[in-house]
Amino acid sequence: QLQLVQSGGDLVQPGGSLRLSCAVSGLTFAAVGVGWFRQAPGKARERISCISSGSKTNYEDSVKGRFVVTRDNAKDMVFLQMNNLKPEETAVYYCAAQLQLLGSETCPVRYTAWGQGTQVTVSS
Predict the structure, then answer these.
(1) pLDDT greater than 90 at residue 27
(2) Distance between CA atoms of 76 and 89, rounded to whole angstroms?
(3) How far apart are CA 121 and CA 3, in angstroms?
């Protein structure tokens, strides 16, 4: 059973950077695809990025060029580096995971395991 533990949320000034971490356990990490989501107050949850088991990445248009998702298969972790953050990106950020075939080059469509969420606040 997949379990995810997140860390890294914080208060950051507009234009600042933050790195979120997602530690995955329970199954062979190399066969897991991971997505990053966020939910702002009063808004629907949205997927902002993902990385497949084959390390292919995908980004929502509003974060392209500013966010980078990576995975460390030796540490069973996925990271989301967020740069040039904007106040409207204040939200609870979640990682989610789904078992895939090894080397998959597309992100999961559904996710069955979720992290606990971490608050990111962008404010001066």
Answers:
(1) no
(2) 27
(3) 25
